Amino acid sequence: MPLVTSKEMFEKAYNGGYAIGAFNVNNMEIVQGITEAAAELQAPLILQVSKGARAYANHTYLMKLVEAAVIETGLPICLHLDHGDSFETCKSCIDGGFTSVMIDASSKPFEENIAITRQVVEYAHDRGIVVEAELGTLAGIEDDVKVNAEDSSYTHPEEVEEFVSRTGCDSLAIAIGTSHGAYKFKPGTKPQLRFDVLEEVSKRLPGFPIVLHGSSSVPQEFVEKINKYGGNMPGAIGVPEDQLRKAASMSVCKINIDSDLRLAMTATIREFFVEHPEKFDPREYLKPARAAIKAMVAHKIVDVLGCDHKI
Ligand code: G3H
Ligand code: 13P
Ligand code: ZN
Predict the structure, then answer these.
(1) Domain 7-261+293-305: what homologous superfamily?
(2) Pocket test for ligand 1, best of 142, 145, 260 (most atoms within 8 A of CB)
(3) Which of 13, 121, 265, 292 has CA atoms 20 to 30 A from the CA of 163?
């Protein structure tokens, strides 16, 4: 099966009350860990590549790794550009074989966001590729750009109909209180997503797939392991998984997860080096790291996204 777009995945997810996991990939072990879990659970899958991932691993290497995963697993996989920052980046990924792109002009004024998103949509749709856009600004760090919590803003539901009809985008990322990275909420506060905003957006866009970025849950067992084995991550707090499950049962069809994979991988490698200070073969520490990613993704698919056995 060739790479697919997310169109059919989202239609089924919307109607079935579940969401598709969009996991960030940067190297072979990450691709393998994610796709092995999805294959065992027969889960549709989005693999996403950021600008930073392309700079780190190279577009062609990532493309070929994902193509290898399609051959090995037979899964319907959508290959998506995460946080495309310009028409040129989106064009380069579309020309280079991706089946979905995000144009993230959410930091720009409304009219400018519409204009650049429309330009990407026209280019993409002419080639059978789908486009995710964003309204509202998430706090956190994306591609080295740090957005402070004070500068983030929830999506204004009254803007979404005009934005979607004028841009023609295929899915919309909204800001309802999630943020990128491992430090999402202040220690001592109770994390709470704005389901009122999500409900209002969904009412205005019936049947339209909504996307949640910044949806790692930052499992404390991994934070504790990192800290136990020489790390220092006090106050790392994520989005409660029951709230993500609720969002997945509503109009949210795509949930983005990256930081949790990084935590699983890093905690496992830190533990390995402390437990085996004499070892230096990368295969020996990357193997358990890959297994930790696989276990994390399996847990997300079954307990958070609800997309197992949906192929
Ligand atoms: O939204 C950000 C993703 O986690 C990708 O992060 O830009 O460091 O690759 P990155
Ligand atoms: P996390 O940092 O919460 O994993 O979010 C990832 C993301 O939104 C990628 O676009
Ligand atoms: Zn994101």
Answers:
(1) Aldolase class I (3.20.20.70)
(2) 142
(3) 13
Q: Which residues line ligand 2 (CB under 6 A)?
A: 24, 82-83, 180-181, 213-216, 256-260
Strand 140-142, strand 145-147: pairing: antiparallel
CB-ligand 1 contact for 83 (6 Å cutoff): yes
Q: Which residues contact 8 (CB under 8 A, 6 or more apart)?
A: none
Predicted pLDDT at 277:
98
pLDDT at 138: 87
Residues with CB under 5 A from ligand 3 (ion): 213
Which of the ligands is closest to the CA of residue 185?
2
Low-confidence ranges of the chain (pLDDT < 70): 141-151
Q: Is 291 exposed, middle or buried (0-12, 13-18, 19+ CB in 10 A)?
A: middle
